[in-house]
Amino acid sequence: MIAWARILRSAAAAAALALAVAPAAGRAETGPKTLRFIPQADLRSIDPIWTTAYVTRNFGYLVFDTLFALDKDFKPQPQMVDRWTVSDDKLVYRFTLRDGLRWHDGQPVRAADCAASIERWGKRDTLGQKLMEAVGEILADDDKTFTIKLKAPFPLIFDALGKLSSNVPFMMPERLAKTDAYQQIPEAIGSGPFKFVKEEWVPGNKAVFARNTDYVPREEAPSFASGGKAAKVDRVEWLYIPDTTTAAAALNAGEADWYEQPPADLVPVFAANKDITVTTVDPLGNHGILRFNQLQPPFNNLKLREAVLNLVNQKDYMGAAAGDPKYWKTCAALFGCGTPFETNAGADVLLKGPNPTKAKELVKEAGYKDEKIVLLSATDQPIVHGQALVTLDALRRAGLNVELQANDWGTLITRRTSKEPVEKNGWSIFHTWTSAPDFFSPAVNILVRGSGEKAWFGWPSDAKIEALIDAWFKAPGLEAQKKLAADIQIEAYTNNVPYVPTGQFVVPTAYRKNLDGIIIAPVVFLWNVEKR
Predict the structure, then answer these.
(1) From CA 201, how far away is CA 208, in angstroms rounded?
(2) How far apart are CA 164 and CA 286, in angstroms?
(3) pLDDT of residue 211
(4) What 3 state SS string does 94-137 have?
(5) Confidence class for position 264, pLDDT limits 50, 70, 90
(6) Are 92 and 149 in contact (CB under 8 A)?
(7) What is the DSSP letter of 190?
(8) What is the per-residue DSSP string for 384-418?
(9) What global pTM score does this model have?
């Protein structure tokens, strides 16, 4: 991970400089301080284990806490854990929790809560699934201590328990963690720096969080998800404003403090406002994603997935999703460009494309009979909808029968869980994006996995990819891992096509200059943020 850490430090330093030079401005607020935040999407699910949606992940970081957390160098640091021991054979890990940890309902955090939370997370998250393959049992020794006994060494155990992005191994009370991993928890009771005010939650409008006065932050300085999580405002209001013009007006007028992901065409408007900072707080970037449903026709046919691959022009997608070329670049590497596992192996079709003539030949070879293709989109997510419109045009030009079904992001993330055919409200393709912590290595890239029913939405099956990923986890060093990552990519592009990356980009964010303490990270954290 040395090369990755170096890239990260360089990018983070540049972003930190941009924040440091921003002058102070804004209106004074008397009484309790409220941070008004316009999130990337509506909050529909409060279960960050059930869904990988980033809006729910960000919700999770406000409400829940983790045993370990990654710092800016991608090194796992203790968070809820106070101390731990490891046996000489690396098979027995014993963890002791920090003093004073309490759930938002006032009950103490117990070791049994943590054991149940790890087990539930391990049923959904791909890295968690690999960890659980190595786990023999997880035992609560007493109220503050639990033990993980492994059947075989798992060198990434701390990285797994401190996983930065979706699915994050958030700790929950045992009664919630016992919920079936494929069903949503009924309430969000965490131990994090903010409490979710459920009675003020209005889906489609607002979510409210109150400072947890019982939370005791760690003494270390905040760094990514690690260190002290100090709530420096009394209240956080997430204001869901799907109309981007209205959202922009709210930020410009000071009725909102922070617009998480303004669309590319509004960035110049904010840049012209002396009271607003426009910058990129994510130093790593994202991949645009075109995802197929491999369970249902017509994309259960490899030839048709290959046809779509031949239609992709990343410049078109990035122009639609990210706007100004300074924010994006083309990238065919499934594990990202600028990462230790970057490679172009197997990616010639994407690198040399698009090739509409070849695409039409593949459509014919697939025996396509004008079956309806349902393309899901979300009009309140410019990144998603911009990509979807490009796909709609490309597929129709290739003679495919495509129906665009555009709703909001909350509807999309619910519908994508369906394994039904399109006649029963199923789907064929949807677009999303994924941040670097979720794609930069075979350990975390959920999109490339070929584990069938256990795989991420789309459910590709590829025994060779799974075998190569197993080998990657057992590889003796970075060079061996790089070779296996290249082999995984070759298999994905040539024999499966589980998805198509549509480019790599960073997302500008805009906030009023009376905010201080924003953490430079690939995830939005609202602790440490002060409002003057």
Answers:
(1) 6
(2) 14
(3) 98
(4) EEEECCCCECCCCCECCHHHHHHHHHHHHHHCHHHHHHHHHEEE
(5) confident
(6) yes
(7) -
(8) HHHHHHHHHHHHHHTT--EEEEEE-HHHHHHHTT-
(9) 0.91
Q: Is residue 407 pLDDT above 80, yes or no?
A: yes
- Nearest CA to 419 among 310, 294, 522? 294
Residues 6+ apart with CB under 8 A from 117: 169, 170, 171, 172, 174, 177
Would the pLDDT of 29 be above 90?
A: no
**Residue 418 has which token pair?**
């369906």
The beta strands (E) that lie in 319-372 are given as 328-329
> CA nearest 319: which of 310, 329, 311, 309?
329
Question: Which pLDDT score, from 0 to 100, does residue 28 have?
Answer: 54
Q: Residue type at 249? A: A
Please list, in sequence order, all residues whose beta carbon lies within 8 angstroms of the beta carbon of residue 333, skipping any fewer than 6 positions away. Answer: 339, 341, 342, 343, 344, 347, 489, 501
Q: Report the alpha-carbon distance of residue 517 to residue 46 in Å, rounded.
A: 26
Report residue 438 as tokens: 């979720």
pLDDT, residue 339, reads: 93
Amino acid at 431: H
What six digits make up the tokens of 242?
Answer: 């799907």
